[in-house]
Amino acid sequence: MSQRKSPKKSVKHVPPNDWQDVWDGIVEMRKSKNAPVDLIGASSSADRNAPPKVQRFQYLVGLMLSSLTKDANTNQAIQNLRSVGLTVDKMRELTEDEIDTHIKGVGFHKTKAKNIKKVADILHEKYDDDTPPTYEEVILLPGVGPKMGHLFIQLSTGQAQGIGVDVHVHRIANRLKWANSTTPEGTRVQLESWLPHDKWMEINELVVGFGQTQCPAQNPKCDTCLISKICPSSALGKQKRTRSSKTEKKKPKRAVKSRKRAKDSSSDDPSDDYESNFLDSDDDRVVAEDSEPDDEND
Ligand code: SF4
């Protein structure tokens, strides 16, 4: 099992004075709870009637399946696995190919099938078929990175040890000047330096849904946004519309490449792509706004 880097950087970021007004505006726009993340996000992965440790395993598998995958496809894969029994025992019993058959719709399904099986073995051997109790331990599991680790701890314990920053949270935090970073991991560190702890549980679902419905990577709907008067990036909607009308139907190169890769090959490794491109705090490669698919999780 490879040891993941644990970012130690502590960067104090000073947010705009009116961040609370911006937050309240987003809460207002999210009241209808009509984003994919509200209906079929990670919190719906577990069978609420299952024993607690089975639910924790199901949350973990749901998060592992969700990287570079639309919520609807993740949800379908979870339902498929639950129909045969999404437990540590069952995943140990199935072959990689059998697991793969049930999760074909998700990005990097072959690698994820391999990782789910490895994780089930580790949980059986080290944790009595339960999941690790701490963030530090959960991110040592294959295919589990910092974002998944923080979201898993939140889902499984009801407490936040850190903020789960995916491409939506990363993009929007930087648009709002809540952070100034080229990587999701840098954004996480900066957000955690100032955002009150009682908001750490809420921010991921709040902002992911806002990104899915109002402020996507391409063509943010600034003209109907309640916070457009105080958003530092409110000119983006106009710029994006002008640009996209000129380049109509052209797919951004990286998004196309990412989708091609997500169709899977046995050599694809989401932890190589996802972790090193998006989550390594020492990696200053920019996640270009145009490169982000609007409806996928990182
Ligand atoms: S970029 Fe546009 S849609 Fe996004 S928060 Fe700012 S005003 Fe709203």
Explain what you see:
The protein contains 15 helices and no strands. Helix 10 packs across helix 11. Mean pLDDT is 83; it is low at 1-8 and 245-295. The two termini are 22 Å apart. It is elongated, with a radius of gyration of 19 Å. It has a domain at 19-211: Hypothetical protein, domain 2 (Endonuclease III, domain 1), CATH 1.10.340.30. The chain has helices spanning 19-29, 36-40, 52-66, 71-84, 88-93, 96-102, 109-127, 135-138, 146-157, 167-175, 184-194, 200-213, 236-246, 253-262, 270-279.
Keywords:
298 residues, mainly alpha, Endonuclease III, domain 1, 15 helices, binds iron/sulfur cluster, Endouclease-III_FeS-bd_BS, nucleus, iron-sulfur, DNA repair
Question: What's the helix and strand layout?
Answer:
Layout lengths: L18 H11 L6 H5 L11 H15 L4 H14 L3 H6 L2 H7 L6 H19 L7 H4 L7 H12 L9 H9 L8 H11 L5 H14 L22 H11 L6 H10 L7 H10 L19
Helix pairs in contact: 3-4, 3-9, 6-7, 10-11, 10-12
The structure holds iron/sulfur cluster.
Short description:
This protein has 298 residues and is an all-alpha fold. The chain has helices at residues 19-29, 36-40, 52-66, 71-84, 88-93, 96-102, 109-127, 135-138, 146-157, 167-175, 184-194, 200-213, 236-246, 253-262, 270-279.
